[in-house]
Write a sequence for this structure.
């Protein structure tokens, strides 16, 4: 069921029908898909050009609570804050560090979600 159809069915459909249950499941799945989550290394490497991810640096003595938007160029990820930056992030050399020193989110997570999501060792 398409999301548009599901929303319409929730407004006008029979709440006791099986189609209503499918509509509810469709809407819940769409909402969960919008929730921020940590991406896999493959998702980061294969994300479409011009897509945006939120790069989080693991907190340490220098970086306390750092998260930045990055945009993909097809050859790597570049900071949205530094257009003159010619060094891409997340090249093949960075794969080993992913999840340990930094990670990328599908959308900007709040502090609670970030704190509740464990880092890899």
């Amino acid at each position: 069921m398409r999301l548009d159809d599901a929303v319409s069915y929730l407004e006008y459909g029979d709440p006791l029908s099986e189609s209503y249950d499918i509509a509810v499941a469709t809407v819940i799945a769409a909402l969960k898909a919008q929730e921020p989550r940590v991406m896999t290394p493959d998702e980061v490497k294969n994300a479409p050009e011009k897509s945006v991810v939120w790069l989080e640096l693991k907190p340490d003595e220098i970086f306390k609570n750092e998260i930045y938007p990055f945009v993909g160029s097809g050859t790597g990820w570049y900071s949205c804050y530094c257009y003159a930056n010619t060094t891409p992030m997340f090249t093949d050399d960075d794969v080993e560090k992913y999840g340990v020193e930094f990670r990328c989110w599908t959308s900007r997570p709040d502090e609670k979600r970030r704190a509740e999501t464990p880092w890899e060792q």
Observations:
- The mean pLDDT is 77.
